[in-house]
Amino acid sequence: MKLDKSTTMLPALTLTPTTITAADIPDVLTFVLQARAELFPSLSAAGLPADLASFEATYLQGGGQFMIVRNAGAIVAAIGYLPYDGRFPQLNYQGLNTVEVVRLYVLPAFRGFGLASRLYRALEAQARADEVQMMYLHTHPFLPGAIDFWRRQGFEVVDIESDPVWQTTHLQRQL
């Protein structure tokens, strides 16, 4: 779907983030796995990540949340969070209710209209309602605009790993 920002995008500006239900899971998994394959083609052989393998337990029954935006029934954007698991020893969130923001993806035709920002703000509002104290995420400089996007959302860079390939950039936002 090719969208013209100058005239036909008014409907995209009214798309609303919604929290998923069990009925959404098949569509969500398809969308997220396609996005993952596009962004990280080298990970396609790595198998299904744990949060996706146990999606319902993680995002519907556990401490996670997942939101999507649909246009004409099709998912065009997604984001989630799950309880931070402490796997990065240089980050200490002990004693804080900390979640990790994951899987933000907006289809290319829907980018540039503030949809990712609205989706994140909806997720943050849910985090506040869930009494989350710290939102954490990591990204990579090879993802165009990602670090600047998260800074505009109020996140601060707290660590950059020296790995020459990934250069994992860790960010946080206290709520």
Helices and strands, with pairings:
Elements: H1 10-13, E1 18-19, H2 25-39, H3 50-53, H4 55-61, E2 65-71, E3 74-83, E4 98-106, H5 115-129, E5 134-139, H6 146-152, E6 156-160, E7 169-174
Parallel strand pairs: 4-5
Antiparallel strand pairs: 1-2, 2-3, 3-4, 5-7, 6-7
In the CATH hierarchy, the third-tier topology of the domain at 17-131 is known as Aminopeptidase
CATH class of the domain at 17-131: Alpha Beta
Distance between the termini: 37 Å
- Quaternary form: single chain
Q: Give helix and strand order, one letter per element, not per position.
A: HEHHHEEEHEHEE
Task: Describe the fold and architecture.
The protein has 175 residues and is α+β, with helices and mostly antiparallel strands. The protein has a domain at 17-131: Aminopeptidase, CATH 3.40.630.30. Helices cover 30% and strands 26% of the residues. The longest helix is centred in the N-terminal third of the chain and has 15 residues, at 25-39. It starts with 9 loop residues before the first helix and ends with a strand. The relative contact order is 0.14. Residues 1-10 have low confidence and may be disordered.
